[in-house]
C-alpha cells in the first residue's frame, strides 16, 4: 500500500494486518495509486504477482479497480489456503507454517475473473513471466510508456518497472 500510494499504510487503514481470503476490506478506492497517476499521462499499466491489498465483493479491490489496465496474479499469500502437501516453490519445496485449512483455495485471477482455482504454483512464475513479457513487448511495439508492478508471491520483494 505504501509503495503504490506514497503514503504510510496506517493512513490508508492497511496496517497492522494483511487481507485474508475472508477479508471484506481492501485498499480504499479513494486512495490514489501510482498507476492512477500514470494512466492519464498515457502509460499502459499492469500488475502481475501477489496483490494482497484486498479482493472484496465481486473483486472490488483488485488492481483493475486501482488504476491498472491488466492484472494476473493471486489476491493473497500462497500460504493462506489449504497447503497440506502443497508444493509452494518449484521443483519440490513444500509449504510449511500457518495454513488456513478449510479456507477457499488460492485462485489465479486474470483482470477481474478467476482463471484457475486452485492455482498451480509450479506453473505460476512461468505465467507471470509470459504475462509481463507480453505486456512489455506490446507496449514497446505501440511506443507507449508503461508501468509494470510485480510483487512476487515467493519472496519479500517487489519490482516497479517504468519505461518513459
UniProtKB/TrEMBL annotation:
SUPFAM superfamilies: Alkaline phosphatase-like. Keywords: Calcium, Hydrolase, Metal-binding. Its cofactor is Ca(2+). The keyword Disulfide bond does not apply. Residues 1-154 form the Sulfatase N-terminal domain. It comes from the Eukaryota. Belongs to the sulfatase family. This is Sulfatase N-terminal domain-containing protein. It comes from Goodea atripinnis.
Amino acid at each position: 500500500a505504501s509503495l503504490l500510494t506514497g503514503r504510510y499504510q496506517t493512513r490508508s487503514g492497511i496496517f497492522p494486518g494483511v487481507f485474508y481470503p475472508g477479508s471484506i476490506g481492501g485498499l480504499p478506492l479513494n486512495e490514489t495509486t501510482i498507476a492512477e497517476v500514470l494512466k492519464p499521462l498515457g502509460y499502459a499499466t499492469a500488475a502481475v504477482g501477489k496483490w494482497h491489498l484486498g479482493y472484496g465483493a465481486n473483486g472490488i479491490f483488485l488492481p483493475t479497480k486501482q488504476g491498472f489496465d491488466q492484472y494476473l496474479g493471486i489476491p493473497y499469500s500462497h500460504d493462506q489456503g489449504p497447503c497440506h502437501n502443497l508444493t509452494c516453490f518449484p521443483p519440490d519445496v513444500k509449504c510449511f507454517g500457518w495454513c488456513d485449512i478449510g479456507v477457499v483455495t488460492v485462485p489465479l485471477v486474470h483482470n477481474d475473473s478467476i482463471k484457475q482455482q486452485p492455482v498451480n504454483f509450479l506453473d505460476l512464475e512461468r505465467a507471470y513471466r509470459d504475462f509481463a513479457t507480453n505486456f512489455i513487448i506490446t507496449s514497446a511495439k505501440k511506443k507507449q510508456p508503461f508501468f509494470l508492478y510485480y510483487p512476487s508471491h515467493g519472496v519479500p520483494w517487489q519490482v516497479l518497472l517504468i519505461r518513459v
